Amino acid sequence: METILTIQNLNKRYGRLQALKNVTFEIKKGNVYGILGPNGSGKSTTLGIVLNVVNKTSGTYSWFDGKVATHDALKKVGAIIERPNFYPYMTAEQNLKLVCNIKNINYTKIEEKLELVGLIERKDSKFSTFSLGMKQRLAIASALLNDPEILILDEPTNGLDPQGIHQIRAIIKHIAAQGTTILLASHLLDEVEKVCSHVVVLQKGAVLYSGLVDAISANEGFFELQADDTENLMAVLQLHPDIEKINSEEGKLFVYLKKDLKASDLNRFLFEKNISVNHLVKRKNSLEEQFLELTKK
């Protein structure tokens, strides 16, 4: 699979403040990546460096397996790293025509991209009449005019109402389904979990994790069990070598694992110990639980 972006040991200092500390990760073609972290974790700085608007202190990055110089590579990139900045007295279509003129793009792309972001019926409306969500969607249309191989978004749903958030996320999923690689920075766990296939977790400028969202940490999941005799169930579960800890809450036992364990294997183990359960469900830790565990470590 083609590597779109490679970042190696990237460092950035602002005086005494080290904003990035040996940041290393790769972006592969066709996936949706989230850079996840609280404000001040280095997300925007990382994007600024690879987009050539922030100078790095040390380290390297390369586009498209290093085969394309940064200046030429950025022609294949669409990006929104600041609030949408269009002329308020011009219509949506006029603003996009201006972008086409600057980037030497054919006007035929305008209607296609307005359709994609759900603004085709408002193409003749002035930008000043748009809601914040519509402004953000127009910015996405603008970033897509050159049919980029990768779309980079910095906090794409920041400040939007629930409907606006839903619309932007739906658009991101649709763009990804068409084969465009996406890299978005967000401090919202919910956003990354719903939209992204891969995640890079940053904290205070350092990478804590880079990989699949579903495997953000050693996530063996946990079991939720219930039986008529809770005390006996607890005593038998404590004998199992793969169980790390057991919590009791409202008549249910929550069983956390040292390593992966199938529900069928646990059920068989209990049956052999003459324990009959009336409720046994295996659950996956939420991204929030995994993120909190990761940052705590």
UniProtKB/TrEMBL annotation:
SMART domains the record matches: AAA
ABC transporter domain residues: 5-229
Keyword Transit peptide recorded: no
This protein's UniProt keywords: ATP-binding, Nucleotide-binding, Transport
One Pfam assignment: ABC_tran
UniProt keyword Plastid, yes or no: no
GO molecular function terms noted in the UniProt entry: ATP binding; ATP hydrolysis activity
Record Gene3D superfamilies: P-loop containing nucleotide triphosphate hydrolases (3.40.50.300)
InterPro entries: AAA+_ATPase, ABC_transporter-like_ATP-bd, ABC_transporter-like_CS, P-loop_NTPase
Family under the similarity heading: Belongs to the ABC transporter superfamily.
Protein name, UniProt field: ATP-binding cassette domain-containing protein
UniProt lineage: Bacteria, Pseudomonadati, Bacteroidota, Flavobacteriia, Flavobacteriales
